[in-house]
Design a protein that fits this description.
Layout (H helix, E strand, L loop, with lengths): L4 H19 L4 H12 L5 H6 L14 E4 L2 E5 L2 E5 L4 E4 L2
Antiparallel strand pairs: 1-4, 2-3
Helix pairs in contact: 1-2
Length: about 90
C-alpha cells in the first residue's frame, strides 16, 4: 500500500524541518515518525489550526499565539483527556 496524496503533502511539509533535525543530530526518520504519530499525518486539530505537528506545549514564558485544543496526555501511567476550546488566542 502506497502513501495517500495527503500523506505525501504532510511529508513535504516536514522536509525542511528534517534537514534542520539532521544538522542538530536528530535522525530525520525519528523526527518524521514523531510528527506522524503526534499529528495523525497532519490531520489533528493541533496541527491544522495550531500549526504544531509535534504536540509541543507552550510555557508561561511564550509570547506568541496559543492554540487551545483538546489533547490527551500521559500522566501517572494513564491517558488523561484535557478539553480545549479549539481556538487560537493571543498569549498576552
Amino acid at each position: 500500500m502506497g502513501l495517500s496524496d495527503e500523506q505525501r503533502r504532510f511529508l513535504e511539509r516536514l522536509k525542511e524541518a528534517a534537514g534542520v533535525a539532521e544538522a542538530r543530530g536528530v535522525p530525520a526518520a525519528v523526527m518524521v515518525a514523531q510528527g506522524i504519530i503526534e499529528s495523525d499525518w497532519g490531520r489533528s486539530q493541533l496541527t491544522r489550526q495550531g500549526n504544531a505537528a509535534f504536540g509541543v506545549k507552550a510555557t508561561a514564558a511564550w509570547g506568541g499565539a496559543v492554540y487551545s485544543g483538546t489533547t490527551y496526555e500521559w500522566e501517572g501511567g494513564r491517558s488523561v483527556k484535557y478539553h480545549g476550546t479549539n481556538r487560537i488566542y493571543a498569549s498576552r
